[in-house]
C-alpha cells in the first residue's frame, strides 16, 4: 500500500492559505536532491502533496509519512509558511491556480467549479494482481466508502464559516462531473469504456481527471481509493490505509471466489455519501449490509469485522486501538469544532492543527 497526502500551506502570521507551493517545492528539492519529488505541486498554489513509499508494514508507513511531513514542513517554514493537514481552510481564501497548462484548461472548461476548489484528500493505493481483479474490487467497494469518509472527516469550515458538514470537502470535490461513486464495470474493458465515454462527454479532460471515489491507478498496478479527507493526525492516516488495504484484499478474494456483485442503487450510494459527509461519526450512517440507518459506531464496527481476516494480528490490534480512540475522541472535524468552541478563534484551530500535523 502507498499513501498520498494533499496538505495546505498557511501563512505563519494569520493562518490564511498562502500561494507558496512553488517556493516550498523548490526548497524541498534542493534539500533532498536524491529524491525526485519530495513535495509535488497540486491544483492550487496553496497546497502541496507528499507520497509515501510502498510498504506492507503499518509501522513503516507511519514513520515514512511522519518523516515526509516533517521534511515538507521544514521546506514550508523556510519560505515563511506552515504545512497543515486540514482538508479545507478554516479561514477565508481566494485560491490561486497552479501555473500548469492542464490546470489552466481545467479552469477554462469548468469555471467557478474549478476556481473555488481548494480541498485536500488522502489517496490510498493498494496493489492488485490484475486490472480485472481491480475492477472486481471497484464493483464491490462502493457501499463501504462512506464509512471511510465519515471516520476521516476533517473539513467542517470553509470561507470562515461552519458549513454544517463534517466533511465539506466531500461536497466541494463531489461537484466535479467526473467525481463520486461508480460501479458496475464488470471487467477491465468495461472500466476502460466507461472512462473513455466520460472523457468523450467533456466531463473529464483526460483519464487522470476521472475522479471516481475508487479507480484503477494510471501509473501503478493498484486500486486507488480517494474518498478520505486528509487526516491531521498521522495515525489516523495509517488507520484509513489499513482499512482500505483490508477492504481491497477481502473484496479481491470475493471476486476470485465468484461472489456475486451486490445490487447497488446509485441514489442510495449518493445518499450514503451525503450522510457521511454531514455527520461524520457523530450520527447515523447507511448500513452497507442493507439494514437502513445505523449508529455510525455500529457501521464502523461492521467494516472492521469485514476486513479483520485480511489483517495480521499486529495490524488488527492497531486498527482496534485506533477505532476506539476515534470513537472516544472524535474525528478531525470534531476536534476543530471543539477548539473553536474553546477559543472562539479560527486561527487557534489552525495553530492546533499545525502542531498535530507534525506530532
From TrEMBL:
It comes from the Bacteria. One of its GO terms (molecular function) is glutamate-cysteine ligase activity. Signal peptide: none annotated. SUPFAM superfamilies: Glutamine synthetase/guanido kinase. One of its GO terms (biological process) is modified amino acid biosynthetic process. Transmembrane segments: none annotated. It is an enzyme of class 6 (ligase). It catalyses: L-cysteine + L-glutamate + ATP = gamma-L-glutamyl-L-cysteine + ADP + phosphate + H(+). ATP-dependent carboxylate-amine ligase which exhibits weak glutamate--cysteine ligase activity. PANTHER family: GLUTAMATE--CYSTEINE LIGASE 2-RELATED. Belongs to the glutamate--cysteine ligase type 2 family. YbdK subfamily. This is Putative glutamate--cysteine ligase 2.
Amino acid at each position: 500500500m502507498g499513501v498520498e497526502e494533499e496538505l495546505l500551506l498557511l501563512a505563519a502570521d494569520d493562518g490564511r492559505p498562502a500561494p507558496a507551493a512553488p517556493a516550498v517545492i523548490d526548497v524541498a528539492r534542493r534539500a533532498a536532491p536524491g529524491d525526485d519529488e519530495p513535495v509535488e505541486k497540486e491544483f492550487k498554489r496553496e497546497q502541496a502533496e507528499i507520497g509515501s513509499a510502498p510498504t506492507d508494514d503499518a509501522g513503516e508507513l507511519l514513520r515514512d509519512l511522519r518523516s515526509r511531513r516533517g521534511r515538507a514542513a521544514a521546506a514550508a517554514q523556510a519560505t515563511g509558511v506552515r504545512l497543515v493537514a486540514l482538508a479545507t481552510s478554516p479561514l477565508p481564501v481566494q485560491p490561486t491556480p497552479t501555473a500548469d497548462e492542464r490546470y489552466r484548461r481545467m479552469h477554462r472548461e469548468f469555471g467557478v467549479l474549478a476556481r473555488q476548489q481548494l480541498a485536500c484528500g488522502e489517496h490510498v493505493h493498494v496493489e492488485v494482481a490484475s486490472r480485472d481483479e481491480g475492477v472486481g474490487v471497484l464493483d464491490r467497494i462502493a457501499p463501504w466508502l462512506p464509512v471511510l469518509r465519515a471516520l476521516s472527516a476533517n473539513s467542517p469550515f470553509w470561507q470562515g464559516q461552519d458549513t454544517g458538514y463534517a466533511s465539506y470537502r466531500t461536497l466541494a470535490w463531489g461537484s466535479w462531473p467526473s467525481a463520486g461513486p461508480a460501479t458496475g464495470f464488470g471487467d477491465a474493458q468495461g472500466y476502460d469504456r466507461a472512462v473513455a465515454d466520460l472523457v468523450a462527454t467533456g466531463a473529464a479532460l483526460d483519464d487522470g481527471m476521472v475522479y471516481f471515489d475508487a479507480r484503477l491507478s494510471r501509473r501503478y498496478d493498484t486500486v486507488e481509493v480517494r474518498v478520505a479527507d486528509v487526516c491531521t493526525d498521522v495515525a489516523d492516516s495509517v488507520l484509513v490505509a489499513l482499512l482500505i488495504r483490508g477492504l481491497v484484499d477481502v473484496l479481491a478474494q470475493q471476486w476470485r471466489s465468484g461472489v456475486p456483485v451486490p445490487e447497488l442503487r446509485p441514489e442510495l450510494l449518493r445518499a450514503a455519501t451525503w450522510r457521511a459527509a454531514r455527520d461524520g461519526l457523530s450520527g447515523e450512517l447507511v448500513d452497507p449490509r442493507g439494514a437502513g440507518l445505523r449508529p455510525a459506531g455500529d457501521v464502523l464496527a461492521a467494516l472492521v469485522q469485514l476486513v479483520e481476516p485480511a489483517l495480521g494480528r499486529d495490524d488488527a490490534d492497531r486498527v482496534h486501538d485506533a477505532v476506539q480512540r476515534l470513537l472516544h475522541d472524535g474525528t478531525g472535524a470534531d476536534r476543530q469544532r471543539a477548539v473553536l468552541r474553546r477559543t472562539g478563534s479560527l486561527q487557534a484551530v489552525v495553530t492546533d492543527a499545525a502542531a498535530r500535523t507534525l506530532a
